[in-house]
Amino acid sequence: MEFLGSASTQSCITQKRGRRVYGDDRDFKSKNLTAERRRREKLSNRLLTLRSLMNKATIVEDAITYIEKLQMTVKVLSDQLLEMESSSEESERPRNDEINAAEEMKKHGIEEKVEVTNVDGCKLWIRIIFEKKRSRITKFLEAMASHGFELSDTNVTTFKGATLISSCLN
């Protein structure tokens, strides 16, 4: 070791390997300490930037995958909707038996009508005759339920193109 004066008279002593001792506390400081700190800080910042880019890339990749799944779902649902629309168009056309039912009802002199008879204070007996068509009974029952009527003892009969519904209303 080389000493350049005494420790008590000089504030800095230099040793062989480039380290300096400041004062009496003997803390060793490297010549390149600040440069090394800057290098480590730069490296740390670059690693943080890389990590953030990796996270962003993962997010974008996940978003792309999710959008592709949604596009496939839209395509499947669109196909199903088109299929349902085509089948409903077929079902909206009157079938031969429905056309024949209306003609048969007219041929036998059966007319559409509604009769209501008061049975007891708050009970009514209803008798309805209408043309036999698909889903007419369902629509009738839905309409009655939407107006708050309860049907009990209901009887449904079809004959010669006509539908007869007789029921007790509460």
Automatic annotation (TrEMBL):
Keyword DNA-binding: no
One function term, GO molecular function aspect: sequence-specific DNA binding
Keyword list, A-Z: Nucleus, Transcription, Transcription regulation
Protein name: BHLH domain-containing protein
Sequence ranges assigned to domain BHLH in this UniProt record: 27-80
Species assigned in the record: Citrus clementina
Top-level taxon of origin: Eukaryota
Location of this chain's protein in the cell: Nucleus
InterPro entries linked to this entry: bHLH_dom (IPR011598), HLH_DNA-bd_sf (IPR036638), TF_AMS/ICE1/BHLH6-like (IPR051358)
GO cellular component: nucleus
